[in-house]
Amino acid sequence: MDAGNLAEDARVEATTDAATVNAAERDSGAGETHFGFRTVPLAEKQRMVDEVFHSVARRYDLMNDLMSMGLHRVWKDLLVSRLRPPKSARAFKLLDVAGGTGDVSFRTVEAGGAGTTATVADINGGMLGVGRERAATLGLADRVEFVEANAEELPFPDRSFDATTIAFGIRNVPRMDKALSEMRRVLKPGGRCFVLEFSRVDVPVLDAIYDTYSFKLIPGMGRLVTGDAESYQYLVESIRRFPVPEAFAGLMRAAGLKRVGYTPLTGGIVALHSGVRI
């Protein structure tokens, strides 16, 4: 089966309605889930994802630039503009879940005033190590904290952050519904949750070009830059398994978030989802 057929099959499965997606994500751990196009025990997915990011941590940011042709910077800047961190000394606390090397957090504190701080929570120590090094290099170590934590069990008090974000990370979480509920739990009332994630290309012709680029070129690029094609094959496949925007919006609503919406970007390659804790 060629890449186009695989991608189309995955697109069909990803149109699953929100209730079904939510039920699958609520599984106690004894069930199955997807790791790319493979079906794996739910309890094993986190270990497999950890191996992917340990393998690519040192070259992760470079690969983001290469794979997206720099567009990930535009998408993240749009996310930060929606966060609207205050330019003043007024306190603004961001929690960036699965924030890895700190890219969104650095952009946020640089856009905000002296009162803007960020906490990066990530389960992968290798990614956090790279992030801490970057923070020191940028002179932001006093404003960006790095915490090793599971997105499904965040070690922070209720109502402790002004905003929560997760950029290109939610699809790697075994139980997305738990992560979204946790991101809501730690929000202050009125706080906003943003999810930036790959989506469904909705422009004719572009979808075929995007599939060819993703399946034929990105794994090879990963092999050249990181020495690891398999990890990038997984990342490409995981994008195709991710729920369509409206189904994911249903997960956000089920997690208790209100005023849920999403904005497709770059022909639907990416979507910026948002919700509010009331």
TrEMBL record:
<dbReference type="GO" id="GO:0032259">
    <property type="term" value="P:methylation"/>
</dbReference>
<keyword id="KW-0489">Methyltransferase</keyword>
<dbReference type="InterPro" id="IPR029063">
    <property type="entry name" value="SAM-dependent_MTases_sf"/>
</dbReference>
<dbReference type="GO" id="GO:0043770">
    <property type="term" value="F:demethylmenaquinone methyltransferase activity"/>
</dbReference>
<dbReference type="GO" id="GO:0009060">
    <property type="term" value="P:aerobic respiration"/>
</dbReference>
<dbReference type="InterPro" id="IPR004033">
    <property type="entry name" value="UbiE/COQ5_MeTrFase"/>
</dbReference>
<feature type="binding site">
    <location>
        <begin position="150"/>
        <end position="151"/>
    </location>
    <ligand>
        <name>S-adenosyl-L-methionine</name>
    </ligand>
</feature>
<keyword id="KW-0474">Menaquinone biosynthesis</keyword>
<keyword id="KW-0808">Transferase</keyword>
<comment type="pathway">
    <text>Quinol/quinone metabolism; menaquinone biosynthesis; menaquinol from 1,4-dihydroxy-2-naphthoate: step 2/2.</text>
</comment>
<dbReference type="GO" id="GO:0009234">
    <property type="term" value="P:menaquinone biosynthetic process"/>
</dbReference>
<feature type="binding site">
    <location>
        <position position="101"/>
    </location>
    <ligand>
        <name>S-adenosyl-L-methionine</name>
    </ligand>
</feature>
<keyword id="KW-0949">S-adenosyl-L-methionine</keyword>
<keyword id="KW-0831">Ubiquinone biosynthesis</keyword>
<comment type="pathway">
    <text>Cofactor biosynthesis; ubiquinone biosynthesis.</text>
</comment>
<dbReference type="InterPro" id="IPR023576">
    <property type="entry name" value="UbiE/COQ5_MeTrFase_CS"/>
</dbReference>
<protein>
    <recommendedName>
        <fullName>Ubiquinone/menaquinone biosynthesis C-methyltransferase UbiE</fullName>
        <ecNumber>2.1.1.163</ecNumber>
        <ecNumber>2.1.1.201</ecNumber>
    </recommendedName>
</protein>
<feature type="binding site">
    <location>
        <position position="122"/>
    </location>
    <ligand>
        <name>S-adenosyl-L-methionine</name>
    </ligand>
</feature>
<comment type="similarity">
    <text>Belongs to the class I-like SAM-binding methyltransferase superfamily. MenG/UbiE family.</text>
</comment>
<dbReference type="GO" id="GO:0008425">
    <property type="term" value="F:2-methoxy-6-polyprenyl-1,4-benzoquinol methyltransferase activity"/>
</dbReference>
<dbReference type="Pfam" id="PF01209">
    <property type="entry name" value="Ubie_methyltran"/>
</dbReference>
<comment type="function">
    <text>Methyltransferase required for the conversion of demethylmenaquinol (DMKH2) to menaquinol (MKH2) and the conversion of 2-polyprenyl-6-methoxy-1,4-benzoquinol (DDMQH2) to 2-polyprenyl-3-methyl-6-methoxy-1,4-benzoquinol (DMQH2).</text>
</comment>
